Amino acid sequence: MENSIIFNKILIAVDDSKFSYAAAEYGFKLAKSLGSEVALVHISAYPITTSMTGDPILGDPGIIIPDMMDAQREAAKQLFQKLREELGQNVTVSEFILEGNVKDEVINVAQEFNASLIVMGTHSRKGLDLFLSGSVAESVMRNSNCPVLVIPHKEKE
Description:
Layout: E1 9-13, H1 18-34, E2 37-44, E3 53-55, E4 60-62, H2 65-87, E5 93-99, H3 102-113, E6 117-121, H4 127-133, H5 136-143, E7 148-151
Parallel strand pairs: 1-2, 1-6, 2-5, 6-7
Antiparallel strand pairs: 3-4
Helix pairs in contact: 3-5
């Protein structure tokens, strides 16, 4: 029987965590073995408030949201460069750096890129932490039009 499933475009969702790096490593290895094109996506969620305020008397405006978003975009660019250098040799790589709802934007980019597979890590949250933050991976799996490969990364106990 011939296998008709071809993963020619792999979307790898990344952030700056070790969980994400493990998923990127797996996704790039898979892409190399299949001769697939890769797209990296990093989504910064909009901050609700900033925790650092300035002192108007001293003329310090503190950190404002546009500055924070610029810093996050720059960090994402550096992350992509690191991943391309360490993992992405001989692979065609596209990049998407976005702001918004992480769950929704991963789905949107997968459709725009015409991904045949999404690879992402999981933070393996449990209990109250999972309840409060939700599971991005689970939401993507439920709403994606293509298969989602979730790479677990568990801490050694």
